[in-house]
């Protein structure tokens, strides 16, 4: 049985002369946590953009999700098919509470009625460990870690098969990164395949089963995380060409 849930085949995104993503191919196995690393500007967020169609699909290449070709689908159709993502930002709706935010995500992305959305909110907030006492305050007043919890909970409202996270550890303290580690393991254990863009190497090494490193829009290395971070080309890319 083929257990590949998501396939990126020779995908590129070019902005005029800039090859932001250039001929990238990889598969994602159902149930895994796949880490994606790379220096700033190497094309990680653009790769998420072209997979999810937010705000654009690939210039060329194919994206296949659960056996269907999705690279010409509108973003909302891709989301509703089971590919959810988060962005590198603080709070989706700063003026809204966690409950209100999740109601919007549940009814729009998850296409749930109000009662089902409320039930799902309880489930996802429990899964990410969000305190009940914090559900009624505007998101802008939450701590950095609580905003991350809410962001991940929002992505889970539609019961996605795949959750794509863009640098969720940014701005977190070391103990908070350890909490995030446990949170993501719990999300994965609940049956969600996870794609994780991250600069925090300790998190990637702790939870990823495989690691892909991008550089200048192309795959530089992929495979076992501990081996990939020892790869000489990867070290050189991170050090900007300086030899140690
Ligand atoms: N909409 C756009 N128009 C033009 N250039 C873009 C656009 N989006 C991204 N780029 C460029 O594409 C390249 C890759 O950017 P991208 O944001 O994907 O990198 P990244 O690896 O996610 O970086 P970081 O780690 O800093 O978030 C960069 O040179 C960026 O300036």
TrEMBL record:
Which key words tag this protein in UniProt?
ATP-binding, Nucleotide-binding, Transport
Q: Which PROSITE patterns match?
A: ABC_TRANSPORTER_2 (PS50893)
Q: One GO molecular-function annotation for this sequence?
A: ATP binding
**Gene3D superfamilies (UniProt xref):** P-loop containing nucleotide triphosphate hydrolases (3.40.50.300)
GO cellular component term, pick one = plasma membrane
A Pfam family it matches = ABC_tran
Q: Does the keyword Repeat apply?
A: no
> What are the ABC transporter domain coordinates in residue numbering?
6-241
Respond yes or no to whether keyword Lipid metabolism is given for this record: no
Note the coiled coil stretches, chain numbering.
Answer: none
> What's the protein here called?
ABC transporter related protein
Q: Which SUPFAM superfamilies match?
A: P-loop containing nucleoside triphosphate hydrolases
Instruction: Identify the InterPro entries for this entry.
Output: AAA+_ATPase, ABC_AA/LPS_Transport, ABC_transporter-like_ATP-bd, BCA_ABC_TP_C, P-loop_NTPase
């Amino acid at each position: 049985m083929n257990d590949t849930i998501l396939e990126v085949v020779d995908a590129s995104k070019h902005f005029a002369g800039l090859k932001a993503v250039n001929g990238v191919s990889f598969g994602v196995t159902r149930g895994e946590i796949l880490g994606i690393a790379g220096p700033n500007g190497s094309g990680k967020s653009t790769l998420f953009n072209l997979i999810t169609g937010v705000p654009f699909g690939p210039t060329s290449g194919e994206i296949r999700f659960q056996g269907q070709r999705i690279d010409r689908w509108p973003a909302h159709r891709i989301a509703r098919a089971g590919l959810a993502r988060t962005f590198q930002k603080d709070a989706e709706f700063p003026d809204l509470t966690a409950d209100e935010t999740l109601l919007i995500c549940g009814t729009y992305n998850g296409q749930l009625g109000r009662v089902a959305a409320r039930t799902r909110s309880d489930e996802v907030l429990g899964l990410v460990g969000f305190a009940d006492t914090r559900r009624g305050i505007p998101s802008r007043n939450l701590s950095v870690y609580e905003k991350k919890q809410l962001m991940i909970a929002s992505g889970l409202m539609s019961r996605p098969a795949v959750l794509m996270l863009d640098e969720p550890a940014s701005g977190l303290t070391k103990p908070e990164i350890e909490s995030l580690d446990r949170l993501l393991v719990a999300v994965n254990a609940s049956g969600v395949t996870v794609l994780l863009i991250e600069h925090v190497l300790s998190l990637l090494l702790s939870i990823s089963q495989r690691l892909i490193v991008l550089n200048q829009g192309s795959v530089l290395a992929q495979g076992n995380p501990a081996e990939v971070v020892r790869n000489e080309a990867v070290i050189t890319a991170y050090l900007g060409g300086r030899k140690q």
